[in-house]
Amino acid sequence: MEFTTLKSEASLHHLGIESGDPRILAEFYAKTMQMKMISSDNGTWHCLGPNRLLVFLKGKGQRLSFAAFACRDEQSLDQIKSRVDKEGLDWKPFKSPFLKDGAFSVLDPDDHTISFGVPIKIKQQNDSLYAPLQHLTLQSLDLEKFIDFYENKLGFAVSDRVINSDGELTTCFLRSNREHHSLACFKSQRVGMDHHSYEVGDWNLIKDWCDHFSNLGVKLFWGPGRHGPGNNLFTFIQDCDGNKLEISAELEIVTDRKPVDWPHEARTLNLWGDALMRS
Ligand SMILES: [Fe+2]
User: How many domains in the chain?
Assistant: First the structure.
């Protein structure tokens, strides 16, 4: 198996999220995630913070417009593009003010737009709490197709899987660098975005973020807890559209190990307590 995306050390760079009112959603992130909001064309808003970047577009609420992965250089981007060509996937140029020319996108089996590009260096404010955007989790009816696309076609690597008592795959975690997952997917009755996550690294920063949320009157939605796969500490909030955001710490760094299959049970999702089961 050729792990092209993993070899390129790609990382989740920014997300496009649709909303009925992108300005209100951008205001939420500007305040809650300490980002600077900038108006763009067609009612689109950009929110920028240190190592976190979100684009809010007019559309259907809670819908992922695109996920953009950053490659470390043009050479690694070209390697992914060659792989995409070799696999016979259709790709389109992807225009973004945050990526250099040459970025491109493909559609995954659930019609999610996934793009790859080399980021343009942007000056970012550094006076806010640390929380780089780190992973995206989706929901799908068919995880076998999901893994086939991301692992067999794009060259992400499966880190861990969750399997139910009938032997069905219910969750998969894929990495595009040494972090346990930059992309994950839950089997669900719906297709779309489950949550996006910011990796703060240190437990104390989860506390600082929780205090910050409390000062704004934003209640925790789930956690704190510790996931089994990835072993990361977590807490979740919801934005004003109902999108779920995770603040994570201590995510496993995978160097060289085989994927582990975990049982589909609450403890796998949260070693400390109650779980938010998707199926
Ligand atoms: Fe997560």
Answer: 2
Tell me the residue range of the domain where 168 lies: 133-269
Distance 156 CA to ligand 1 centre (A): 17
Closest by CA to 177, choosing from 53, 91, 54, 72, is 72
Q: Give the CATH number, domain containing residue 174.
A: 3.10.180.10
Q: Are residues 145 and 101 in the same domain?
A: no
| DSSP three-state, residue 214 | helix
Task: Output 125 or 65, whichever has higher pLDDT.
Answer: 65
Query: Please, which pLDDT band fits residue 104 given cuts at 50, 70 and 90?
Result: very high
Task: Based on the fold, state whether residues 107 and 141 are members of the same structural domain.
Answer: no
Task: Say whether both 54 and 94 belong to one domain.
Answer: yes
Distance between CA 256 and CA 55 in Å, rounded? 34
| 200 inside domain | yes
Tens-place pLDDT, residues 155-196:
999 999 999 999 999 999 999 999 999 999 999 999 999 999
Question: What is the 85 CA–ligand 1 centroid distance (Å)?
Answer: 30
Determine, yes or no, domain membership for 126. Answer: no
CB 44 within 8 A of CB 56: yes
Transcribe 36-88 into DSSP letters: EEEE-GGG-EEEEETTEEEEEEESSTTEEEEEEEEPSSHHHHHHHHHHHHHTT
In a domain, 58, yes or no: yes
Report the separation in Å between the CA atom of 246 and the middle of ligand 1, taken as the mean of its atom positions. Answer: 6
For the cut 80, the answer to whether the pLDDT of residue 16 exceeds it is: yes
> How long a stretch of residues is the chain?
279
Does residue 182 form part of some domain? Answer: yes
Ligand 1 centre distance from Cα of residue 76 (Å): 26
